[in-house]
Batch of 2 targets.
Target 1
Amino acid sequence: FTRTDGPVNNPAILSTLTVQGNFSMQGTDAFGGPNLAVVMGGGNNQTVTESAGTIAGSFQINKNGGNATLSTNVVTSGRCAIAEGTLKTNGKTFSCGSAFSVEDGGILERFGTAGEAVSPFTLQTGSTVVYTGDGDGAADTVTIAPVIYHHLTLNSTDGTRDTFQPTSALDVNGNLTIANGELRLDVNNPTVTVAGNVTIGSSVLVRKGKGTWRFDGGDTALLQTNNQNFGAIMIDGVAKTVKLTGSSTALDTLTIGADDVVELNGVPTVAIGTIVNNNILRLFGNETLTIQTMDSDSGTFEFVGDGDGSAETFVIPDFASGTPDYYNLLIND
């Protein structure tokens, strides 16, 4: 769709202009109004170009594949929504004249670097925000906006060069994926709260800060460790289980809530400074586990074996000379 010159009138009734190819708008003549919704649809990759003027009605992304990418700054007068599919802001300004929402199945992909501007948005359950950096080959700081996310993905298109930096507390009600780059928690020392899984790529570096990693919500969440030192971790959900996966890890402190469980799940090496165990730490028994300061007056250590069906011998470690190694110890193969 291309508008070179001349007005596009506001229809008398609610109407939709669905574009499955590229959208290009030139000239300052009126373009629609409250009764005209512009929808980027279909399954192809598309570009959105607004060389002049303003989309006077609503603007929506509702795609079953591909993405819609801004080629210029885009300004609308009406509400904006990403219902399904991906909107890539591409480092441009996206200025929505009314409410802007990312709905279940919608993905907002943005650089997060200087020069980009995106109107405030609300994130519904099932939505995803992706920060990529600008892909210029240089090391950049990507600012993570202080909103409550559902799913959040950090994936530097410059590989390991870009750093992702929350300005304040980071709250993710779904899954947190750090695919590429560096997560800097040592600058603003935010608390990171996650209800779902945490996936960390093999080349990622997480720089711990003074804040706490807090796991809330219910059900089971996976924490991919990949040789990271997370600092302080607190499990504070509703009958929450956090299961470690991947390679070795280190924790300054681990706090397990009264109805929560941590499963070491065979992660080869786990080093814990101080543990406050108010319920259960579950382990196979083949992990190399060190604890500097044991919780001597609460909690259960449950050894369950690795479940592979073979007869094996596992060692129950001796943690601290002169103090109780365990408050409660359960062998439950």
Target 2
Amino acid sequence: GFQFITLIQNIEDSIEDKNAITDIVVTGGYNDWANIDGVYTEMEKFVQYSQAMYPNAKLWLAPVGWIKTTSTKKELVAQSIGAWKTSGNSLGFHVMSTIQELFHNPYLLGKDTIHPNNDGQKELARCLYEELTTGSCTILQNGLVKENNGQWAMYRFGKIDRNATGLYLEEKSKQYLFLRNGFQDLKYVGIVLNSTTGKWTFVQKGTTGTYTGIAKSIENGRWYFCRKGILDWNFTGVAKSIENGKWYHCKKGALDWNFTGLSKSVENGKWYFSKKGALDWNFTGIAKSVESGKWYFARKGALDWSFTGLAKSVENGKWYYCKK
């Protein structure tokens, strides 16, 4: 929101020996998208002021402004950066070249997709120093990078980030990838917390999926029910485990090893008998429904609505008469 000349005027009184200033660097380029035609005029005022106040200073221009969206504003920002470079060259700035691509990396931008995050600020400082001392800078890899073997990896300041474990958004595909210790884990099958959405999400083959069923949590090793890839804390019923293909009873989204009784299958809506959490296909007898609290007859693990006769209760071993 500042004009070119504003910031340097604000610090004028704090600089005692103005002849000792050797370099002045201007970074930015984003805000000028709203006044591209005024870039040359404002930059010219800055040059005239700086040359008068700091006669020994070399003027540098670092056009790093960017925005992470694909909107029309991105095109305007690109035009603004173009105006910076053209005007800067005309007015005698030393225009930094390699640094211009720095914030095209979305992993260096904050939530507003405009200003640099902590890593972005560190990289900007490093690149400015390199430009000032060597005339160019090396843009280090930051964020998700697809390796030659097709596997994704998380880089931070040019090195694999071994602390990167979890789900990370790949910007181009808008797909979340699961990484463990910096590399995409293609073998893991289970539930992982998505720190961006705050939801526990099913992962398979290195990315999120739309699986409905029971899977294990990476955090505590316990089993939970996912519906279309998201842990469903409201679900109570029978579902299939992706790990062993067996059926289990879940209560409020979590596998309940203490449950013995009848509950409804998420797959076909029918009722089945579970013993200590696991569906028991060998059970024939009377059991209690978790939904209604009523007692029903099950044959070979499945509720049998056609049965009429005496059967034994799983709870007390006594015999009771059932009618359809």
